[in-house]
Fold:
Amino acid sequence: MITLGIETSCDETAVSLVEDGRVLSSEISSSVHLHFEYGGVVPEIASRFHVEYIFSVLKKALQDARRDIKDVGLVAVTNRPGLPGSLLVGVSFAKAISLALGVPIIGVDHLKAHVISAFLGDVNSKTAEESFPFLGMVISGGHTNIYYCRNIKDFDLIGRTRDDAAGEAFDKVAKILGLGYPGGPVVEDRAGNYRQNEEIGFPRAVCGDKDHVDFSFSGLKTAVLYYWRDAAKTEAEKDRVCFSFQQAVIDVIDKNIYHAIKITGADRFAVGGGVINNNVLRERIMERCREEGVELYLPEKRYCADNAAMSAVMGEMLYRAGERSSLYLNTQRRVG
Ligand code: KG4
Ligand code: ZN
Structure:
C-alpha cells in the first residue's frame, strides 16, 4: 500500500510517499528564510506559505517517487500539535485528497512521529514495529518530551519541559546574541569555534521525581541574557557563551536520559526532532547509550527536522494497528 504523508505543523511544507515502511520520496519546502528577521516563526507568514506551496510540493513528491496520485491508498496527515493556521492547511488538503480518491485518512501526532523518525533511512537495522517497547524522545523547537513506547498506540509521557523546549532555548539564545533564526545550527557552529577551557558555569535545572524526568530551560536562557548584558561584546566571548550554553543543555538532556533509562529499565532508545541535528549532542547520547548497554536509534540528518516521511510511516503503522480517522478529523493545537 502507498501512503501519502502531509506535514504542515510549523514552517515546513512537506509531502512524502511511503510504501510498506519504505520511503519513496520526501519533499520539503521551508519558509524559514522568511522568519529570519523576526527571530522566530510568524504564524501568519507560515500558513500563507503552506497555501502557496503545498500543491507544488505534492507534485514533486509524486514525481520523485514516480507514482501517480491514483496509486495512493492512505492519507496520513499531522493534525496535532502545531500552529493552528498551519495545521489547518495540511489537514484541509489531506481531507480533499482523501475525499477525491475515496481512500482513508489518518491523523498523526507530530511529536510521536518525530520519535518514529529515528527508525527511518538506511542506517538503522530494525523498524519501530520490531523495536517496541522502547524509550522515545523528541527534542525540537516546540517540545522536549520523553515517552515509554509500548506500541504505536500506547506512548506513555514520562517527562516534558515545564517551560521552554530545548530548541526554543537555542533559538532564544541566538536572538539574545543577535545570531538570527533558527538558533540551533549557528549556536552549534559558534560553540565549535571555542577552543579554550573556561566554560561559563550556566545553571543546569534539575526537575522531576522518582517516576518523572521533567526539564526546564527558561532559567538557563535568563542566565545567558543577564550574562550577555554585562559581558564584553566580542566575537570570542559570543563563541564562549554559545559553548557554555550548549554544554549546559546537553548535560541536562544527558542526565535526564540516564534517569529515564533507570526508571523504565528500557534497553532501546529512539530520539528525534530538530535538535538531534546537533553533533555534540548526538555524540553524548551515543556515549551514554554505549555505557548503559542501550541500543540507540537516531534519525538520519534528513529526517531530524520536520518532514512528512515520519508522518506517513507513523500513519501506516497506526492503520495496520486498526486505527481509523474520518473526514471529521480536526486540528489540535496542543498534544492530544
Ligand atoms: O523538529 P523541528 O524541525 O521543528 C519543530 O517541530 O519544532 O526543530 C526545530 C528546532 C529549532 O529550534 C532549531 O533551532 C533546532 O531544532 N535545531 C538545532 C540544530 N538544528 C536545528 N538545535 C541545536 N543544534 C542544531 N544543530
Ligand atoms: Zn517538529
